[in-house]
Amino acid sequence: MAEFELIESIRARCTQTRDDVLLGIGDDAALLAVPSGKWLAVSTDTLVAGVHFMQDTAARDIGWKSLAVNLSDLAAMGAEPAWATLALTLPAADARWVEEFAEGFAALARQYRVALTGGDTTQGPLSITVTIHGLLPERVALTRSGARGGDGVYVTGTLGDAAAGLRQLQSKSPGDSRLLERLQRPTPRVAQGLLLRGHATACIDVSDGLAADLGHVCAASGVGAEIDADALPASPALLAAFDAGTRRAFQLAGGDDYELCFTAPDVDSGDLLDALAHSGCAAARIGRIDSGSQVRIRDAAGNPVALPRRGWEHFA
Amino acid sequence: MAEFELIESIRARCTQTRDDVLLGIGDDAALLAVPSGKWLAVSTDTLVAGVHFMQDTAARDIGWKSLAVNLSDLAAMGAEPAWATLALTLPAADARWVEEFAEGFAALARQYRVALTGGDTTQGPLSITVTIHGLLPERVALTRSGARGGDGVYVTGTLGDAAAGLRQLQSKSPGDSRLLERLQRPTPRVAQGLLLRGHATACIDVSDGLAADLGHVCAASGVGAEIDADALPASPALLAAFDAGTRRAFQLAGGDDYELCFTAPDVDSGDLLDALAHSGCAAARIGRIDSGSQVRIRDAAGNPVALPRRGWEHFA
Fold first, then answer.
1. Phi and psi torsions of A34, nearest 5°
2. A33, A196, B156, B223: which has the fewest Cβ within 10 Å?
3. Residue B231: C-alpha distances to residues B252, B279, B297 (Å)
4. How many CA atoms lie within 13 A of B216 on its CB side?
């Protein structure tokens, strides 16, 4: 399989089109039309074999996840997905692997109407970099810097499932497919991000671990936060598979959940929480923003909880 | 050096700002304003250590080149550079290496007023993916598909220097610094691309080798081309360092020159060639588009010239 055939194989599978793509794959650059009155949101995430996923992960799952983690960044800004570029570095041009990778990528792209508009294919150690483009009306973006003292802290869905899935995978135990699915096929909370616009004061996606990511919000907003470790939402699968201490570690410091952690004034939050629940992904109140400067964790009885380990950090 | 410090080191050096960057490095996505009436041009290129550059290449040169090859894609579209994202995968967080890389990247970014708006830093085998964004008025973009029978074929600058520099580097001969500079620090022909708008019928940048890249134009335009191998522009450094046969091979099939190859009706080309010469990078007429379907090469006497080797292709 030559480079040309590899690109054709991807193009043939990523068929989502959009009227605002004026020129797609195949020239020196794509040409795209941003509607007037809209801002462009751009984010880039890389997945490296052996670091972000195990070498033997199914190509289909890698394709899905490489787009999902980028869509999650758009969700955290409240942006609507539009276009993606794909830089794929492969040790060898394995036709079957590329087909399955493209099918995984395309399944999610179809779901969110993302057009693949270009990219690059190179030979080297397996790694994928996606750059995602989204659109949003001027001045409504969710950022990390708007949290204010007194705001409630909320999180969508459940926490800790992806870390639990990874633990099961690493221990080569049979594992719970619901947990593995959260690890391998995360659902970006795009619809929920759109609902948060105009309501949340700050937002971030939980990729490094709740405590670390909420810490980024606190640093950007110049505030602190107190989290109730007993209020963190857990899935039935997580509750069934791990003891309370392990669960808590996964929920606080496990990464890769791709839920949204957001802040909002509590007085405003009733309708918002109803809307989120109706969207198919409810949110839970897990703490409160205060005038401190860090994330502090307590249990329901008010006792301090030590953070089990840091969130994911490269070069740590 | 932790991931946070690494990002800070890059941010501190890439200081080019732009009014149209509404939110830059540090949130889940950058927020950018595309002026109404402009189209967005987006391109992505990856450089992999050991494939696109030798492992011991200076970090400063890698930083420069990772942006230059992307700017070259914008040049080939006639787009004006605006924003870039940088996905940097590093085996280790070597502070000195990162500083020098960022300085090389920033030097070129300043020159073309490119704001670095975000990216990702991950641990893994050395590789760099840049996604570049440019702007251009609606409907004036240069593409690969507009070449017509009878158009002249032109190329900016000189060909073969980068391949000659690579040969010198590989043979560990002292080498000519002018050739090495063409390999390590290519000049994207951005100003020339802007001059071509409204005049060139098709354009591509010479990254894989002239014959291969002109072949992409012919395929996209549904035409053929005949090239005069004796008309290919050669630099004094190339003329001094290699014999005629080797030079010709480098000029026809060596990649990495990042000159622009374009087509234009000959009747229109006088003023255009004057303007290019005044821009500091003259263009030469090297052949003619015809109704064939391939690139054919002849010498000045009309004898066919065999293509010495294919242009660069991954997985070949």
1. -90, 125
2. A33
3. 11, 21, 11
4. 24
Residues B28, A123: C-beta atoms closer than 8 Å: no
| Residue B288, strand partner residues | B152, B226
> What pLDDT, on the 0 to 100 scale, is given for residue A312?
55
Query: How far is Cα A119 from Cα A28, in angstroms, rounded to an integer?
Result: 10
Q: ipTM of this model?
A: 0.96
Read off the pLDDT of each residue in B275-285 and give the average, rounded to a whole number. Answer: 98
Helix axes A3-13, A95-111, angle to 10 degrees: 30
- pLDDT tier, A215 (very low <50, low <70, confident <90, very high otherwise): very high
For chains A and B, what is the number of CB pairs under 8 angstroms?
Answer: 217
* CB–CB contact A27 B51 (8 Å): no
Dist CA A50 CA B110 (whole Å): 36
Return the bridge partners of B287, or none: B153, B227
Closest-CA distance, B163 to chain A, in angstroms, reads 19
Token digits of residue B119: 């990216």
- C-alpha radius of gyration, chain A, whole number: 20
Scan for tokens 């994330």, then name that residue: A295
Helix residue ranges per DSSP H, B31-176: 59-77, 95-111, 161-170
Q: Sort out which chain B residues have CB atoms less than 8 A from A39's CB and list them.
A: 22, 31-33
Q: Which of B207, B218, B192 is nearest to B272 (CA)?
A: B192
Question: pTM of the predicted model, to two decimals?
Answer: 0.96
Token pair 């020196």 in the structure block, residue: A28
* Residue B238 · residue B179 · CB < 8 Å: yes
Q: Which two tokens stand for residue B51?
A: 């494939």
Residue A307: pLDDT over 90: no
Mean pLDDT of B102-106: 98
Q: What is the pLDDT of residue A314?
A: 60
Report which secondary-structure segment, H or E, holds B311.
Answer: none
Å from A310 to nearest chain B CA?
A: 13
Provide the Cα torsion B214, B218, B224, B225; round to 10°: -20
Q: What are phi and psi of B217, to 5 degrees?
A: -65, -45
Amino acid identity at A135 = L
Confidence at residue A315, expressed as pLDDT on a 0 to 100 scale: 64
* Whether the Cβ atoms of residue A127 and residue B126 lie closer than 8 Å to each other: no
Contact: B32, A43; criterion CB under 8 Å: no
Chain B neighbors of A87, CB-CB under 8 A: 44-46, 87, 129, 131
Q: What is the pLDDT of residues A83-103, one digit of tens each?
A: 999 999 999 989 999 999 999
Residue B315: is its pLDDT beyond 80? no
Buried-state track B19-33, b at ≥16 Cβ within 10 A, e below 16: ebbbbbbbbbbbbbb
pLDDT confidence of residue B311: 54
Contacts of A84 in chain B (CB under 8 A): none
CA geometry: angle at A63 spanning B65 and A93, to 5°? 65
- A34 CA: distance to closest CA in chain B (Å): 7
Give A-chain residues touching B10 at CB under 8 angstroms.
none
Using an 8 Å Cβ cutoff, are B81 and B18 in contact? no
Nearest alpha-carbon partner for B200 in B280, B138, B262, B292: B262
Phi and psi (nearest 5°) for B263? -120, 145
**Under 8 Å between Cβ of A38 and A47:** no
